[in-house]
Amino acid sequence: MAEALRKGDLVAAALRPRERLLLEFAGTIARAANRVTDEQVDGLRKVGWSDEQIAEAVYVAALFSLFVRLADTFGIEPPPDYEPTGIPGAVTRG
Q1: Per-residue model confidence as pLDDT tens for the chain (94 residues)
Q2: Within 13 Å and on the Cβ side, how many CA atoms surround 92?
Q3: Residue 22 CB partners (closer than 8 Å, separation 6+)
Q4: Half-sphere exposure (CA, 13 Å, Cβ side) for 18?
Q5: Which of 38, 49, 63, 71 is the most buried (most CB within 10 A)?
Q6: Which residues of 44-69 are buried (b: 16+ CB within 10 A; e: fewer)?
């Protein structure tokens, strides 16, 4: 599961549907936050996520995006011994 998540492959990660939906939501925030829809949020509620949990997911995804942008701006890369096979597919930069 961990390797599939590092690659960004939510299908191979064999997540429960509710966790997969939450990670897809976080992915939308990370790629294009302006594309988050009311339907996505309603879908999260329907599978059992509370408004507080959804808000926390938004904060975490937004902070992660901030950290990635700061690292890109300053040219910060993980040390080779931390990421011996390179940057994980889930966070590759376009």
Answers
A1: 888 888 888 889 989 999 999 999 999 998 899 999 999 999 999 999 999 999 999 999 999 999 989 998 999 887 777 766 766 666 664 4
A2: 10
A3: 44, 49, 57
A4: 9
A5: 49
A6: beeeebeeeeeeebbeebeeeeeeee
Q: Please, which residues have CB within 8 angstroms of residue 72's CB and are 6 or more apart in sequence?
A: 93
1 C-beta neighbours (distance < 10 Å), count: 9
Rg (Cα) of the chain, in Å, rounded? 15
Can you spell out the DSSP letters for 8-30?
T-TTTTT--HHHHHHHHHHHHHH
Two tokens at 51?
């408004």
Q: What is the pTM of this model?
A: 0.79
Record the tokens describing residue 46, joined without a space. Answer: 């329907």
Q: Which residues contact 49 (CB under 8 A, 6 or more apart)?
A: 18, 22, 57
Look up the CATH architecture of domain 2-91.
Up-down Bundle (1.20)
